[in-house]
Amino acid sequence: MPERLKSPGYLTPLFLGSAAFVFLNFGLPIRADDLGFSATAIGGMYAVFTLTMLIVRPIVGVCLDRFGRRWFFCAAFVFYTLSMFTFSQGTGLIDFYVARFVQGIGASLMWVSVRTIVADLYAAEHRGEAMGRVTVVSVRGSMIGAVYGFTLLGFMPMQEAWVYAFWGYAGLAFLGLIWSLFFVQESIVETVDDSALPPYRRHPKLKEVFLIILLAAFASALIEPIYLIFLKQKFDVGVHLLAFAFLPAGIVFAVIPQMAGRWSDRFGRGKTIALGVLFAGVVSAALPFWSNLWMVAASYILFAVGWAMADPAIDALVADLAQPEHRGRVIGELELVSAVGAATGPVVGGWLYDHVAPEWAFIGNGLILLCACGLAVLWFTGSGSQLGREKTR
Description:
Layout: H1 11-17, H2 21-34, H3 39-67, H4 70-89, H5 93-121, H6 124-155, H7 158-183, H8 204-223, H9 227-235, H10 239-245, H11 247-253, H12 256-267, H13 269-286, H14 293-321, H15 327-355, H16 358-380
Helix pairs in contact: 1-6, 1-7, 3-5, 3-15, 4-5, 4-7, 5-6, 5-15, 6-7, 6-12, 6-14, 8-14, 8-15, 8-16, 11-14, 12-13, 12-14, 13-14, 13-16, 15-16
């Protein structure tokens, strides 16, 4: 590992805490359906999670600046442990709503704090690579956790596999808590009260970054609720085959983001963001017109490459533009804007699917991403590509 990216301790708990992500995303609707919950009730589980993050993330950001990063990062694994245990024991709708609410608090704490820690620890010339490594480690943890969960499904009924899987995920989250308490150090020198903080002045370029983030998050969420449904109906194949076909896209996120973050450090954030969203937009607009499932799967890999390029560059750019004393607040705002796009996109995408044509959700995704690409070129290339490149520590 390069000297500049030696781990300060947060990567191991991040890996452990991410174990449930993939299995939960695939398994929650299936488990809920087995228990007889309606589609509306299942949708409510996702709404609870999203709304919790919308409320909690900006609060966490402000608290990080006042009280420090470490304890909020550690607290994330308390909430993850509780949510995983609640999932394992849940049999009623309220159980699952509570589990999603607690999970949403944990996710807010972990992602805002870990990105703020990265912004503190790394100077601008290595920050993109460090942000990308956060994504890589989380995805690798979730993929290994998925192997564990789906292996259990291969040997026992869903009801039993669900319980054992989430006992395991709860145990891993608890190990993440123990590791954090012993090995994660505070990343700021001292904490101060509000009166000692300098006035919060948002960098004028942050509004432009946030608009790009909003467009990108909305576009991505536009196709999220209907993507597998559209392909299942078009090609008449089972969900398991679809999941296998798109496994390589998960591998992309387990490899590319750290490399792409390094590119953004070297060539500029704006160029990397623009190229990534351009790539994703063009591929997305073409996806529904392929006549072969494996051609779609290959295209989806390219779509994932585009997002894997853009994400760490966006995170690093926001950190570059934030005042050191208000990094937590700014990164909390970043997460809030992203969550707004993620919450509104599925509604519009579902409406387009039901009332216009399924293809238009993909075309809309592509057009919005092309717009985001144009704004990134306009605002953050040329002289703008040097923004945040100076050393901050």
